[in-house]
Amino acid sequence: MPVPLLVELIFVLVIFAVVQAYAPERTLLAGTVLGAGAAALLAVNYQALLSLEFWVGLIGFVAILSALLVVIHPNPMVSILFLIVNLFCIALFYLILQAQFLAAIQIIIYAGAIMVLFVFVVMLLNLKAEVGLRLTAAPQRWGAILLGTAFVALLFHAIRGRLDEAYIEAGMFDSAFGAARGLGGLLFSKYLFAFEAASLLLIAAMIGAVVLAKRKVR
Amino acid sequence: MDRIVAQVLVESAVKIALFFFVILTAVAYMTLVERRVSAWIQDRLGPNRVGPFGLLQPLADGIKFLFKEEITPPHVYRPVYLLAPLLIFVPALVTFSVIPIGPAVELHGHRVRLQIADVDNGVLVILALSAMGVYGVALAGWSSNSKYSLMGGLRSSAQLISYELAMGLSIVGVLMAAGSLRLNDIVERQAEHGWNILWQLPGFLIFLTAAFAETNRLPFDLPEAEAELVAGYHTEYSGLRFSMFYMAEYVNMITASALATTLYCGGYHVPGLHLLGLPPLAAALVQVLAFCLKVGFFLFVYVWVRWTLPRFRYDQLMNLGWKMLLPAALLHVMWVSFIVLMDWS
Questions:
Q1: pLDDT at B224
Q2: What residues of A are in contact with residue B164 (Cβ under 8 Å)?
Q3: Beta carbons within 10 angstroms of residue B50's beta carbon
Q4: A98, A178 in Cβ contact below 8 A?
Q5: Which end of chain B is less crowded, N or C, counting CB atoms within 10 A of the terminal residue's CB?
Q6: For chain B, which residues make up each domain, given as ranges?
Q7: Domains in chain A, number
Q8: How far apart, in whole angstroms, are the C-alpha atoms of residue B127 and residue A42?
Q9: Using one digit for the tens of pLDDT, what is the confidence trace for A98-115?
Q10: Average pLDDT for residues B307-317, to the nearest whole number?
């Protein structure tokens, strides 16, 4: 039951995208009708809403869609917004894996702090020259296609034959697994050296940034 | 399984509807309280014409906002422009869902928590959601495509990032004392060992200052400094969309007050209540009332400070945040960890 529902919902979304592309003036009507259709599907298949597969599929779909839009969208600010959506999806995945602490940290650090700096920088830029900028230089485009394909092949190679290992089920981990206590305990005992080394690296990077920024002032 | 799920869903839906109603009503009346208290501080009368003591004024304001024409300027970036008010309003409301307003009570054999979600990482959830509020302000400023809005948005994102750090660090002391990120644990610990404000006064003051900055209230309302930026990030908004910014500010104030209450002033705890020997339900009611009173006090402080302190200059704001509050918060963390380590608390 759950997987067909997801497929149906994606189908609804694709119809919406097609309408948007060919008849932009009918967007509101199409959105209303298709939204009602999606709501009806969910109401009929409400059992699927309780299954983990449906939610994993839905979040995964949104994650991939938003990641694509980050790259495709011509406006940098909108790209940033979709990147935030993507980070939220990953936080939700952490939640599903019972890593609640990591999920909260993901949102605070990445979606909350780092992306705000991105927004800040884009606000300071003059976007008029950047909006709608397309990659036209042929060597770059071919290089991107080549390297992208190679990366996808690498990913497939890594995942192949291991999908069963990656499968998760409700209740596979207990709720204390991802709490702050467990994570903190591990960080300050088993992985103490790596943790301290990483903090040292960050300090070094920070001092470097300050030195580079201040050199011009003097 | 299905029955339990249905029960949880219904219980949560009722709680959410109730919280929604109560908070929005509180926001409406907070606008009246703000105007009346401002008037009282400045020795004038304030709005007192609509209904007895002006009590129907919020209703009149709401109707006015609903029927005002909404103008969307032609030069805005529409999708983001429409999204921004939601981005600031929704996180502000959602934050309240993890704050406990009273102890768990027995109703018809059910244990009902007076809190929408009892999250293990409650404090982190609050920090995460308050971090989301920055986007509403920054994007409203950017998408309006106007120089005043842009300056307001830039200032506010810088301000919110700076004070988030001090705020997060000041909370660390409370977390170390309770040994938990769960807000209920923090409240229960304070009920047993005395309120945090008694021995973490520096942390409380840092938290309160940062909370003022995070809610964009005077003396930190630089993002909308009307003398230089017209109205800052919401210059180009009108009608209901403007009122969402306006309401979000008050929701944020209420949430920040509730947070200050929960973290430092014992939450719903009333000292000596168990000596009275009230029935559990009545005791819970008293505790909820006490919580509301404490929150009300902080809300009054908000208005009080507004008419006491002048607005900071931008460089003063940054100096205060980075050169005073942040080191002070770090020192506070060290001092609290020392006390916790020595087990003196």
A1: 67
A2: 112-113
A3: 15
A4: yes
A5: N
A6: 70-342
A7: 1
A8: 33
A9: 788 888 888 888 888 888
A10: 83
Provide mean pLDDT across the span A24-28. 69
Q: A-chain residues within 8 Å CB-CB of B153?
A: 123
Secondary structure, 3-state, B26-94: HHHHHHHHHHHHHHHHCCCCCCCCCCHHHCCHHHHHHHHHHHCCCCCCCCCCHHHHHHHHHHHHHHHHH
Residue A25 maps to a domain: yes
Q: Note the ipTM here.
A: 0.82
> Does A35 map to a domain?
yes
Beta-carbon contacts of B15 under 8 Å, excluding residues fewer than 6 positions away, are: B115, B116
Contact B18, B101 (CB under 8 A): no
Count of CB atoms within 10 A of residue B252's CB? 24
Chain A positions touching B142 (Cβ under 8 A) are: 77, 119, 122-123
Q: Which of A12-16, A141-145, B210-214, B259-263 has the lowest mean pLDDT?
A: A12-16
Locate tokens 């909308």: which residue? B224
Residue A180 and residue B142: Cβ atoms within 8 Å?
no
Q: pTM of the full predicted structure? A: 0.83
Residues in A closer than 8 angstroms to B8, CB to CB, are none
How many helices (H) and strands (E) are present in chain A, helices listed first?
10, 0
Cβ–Cβ of B80/A78 closer than 8 Å? yes
CA-based angle A59:A135:A89, to the nearest 5?
A: 10
Q: For B131, which of A112, A123, A180 is closest by C-beta distance?
A: A112
Residue A110 lies in a domain: no
For A:88-117, CB contacts with B below 8 A are 100-101, 104-105, 107-108, 111-113, 116-117
- Contacts with B, A 25-44, CB within 8 Å: none
Q: Is A14 among the domain residues?
A: yes
Q: How many CB atoms lie within 10 A of CB B198?
A: 14
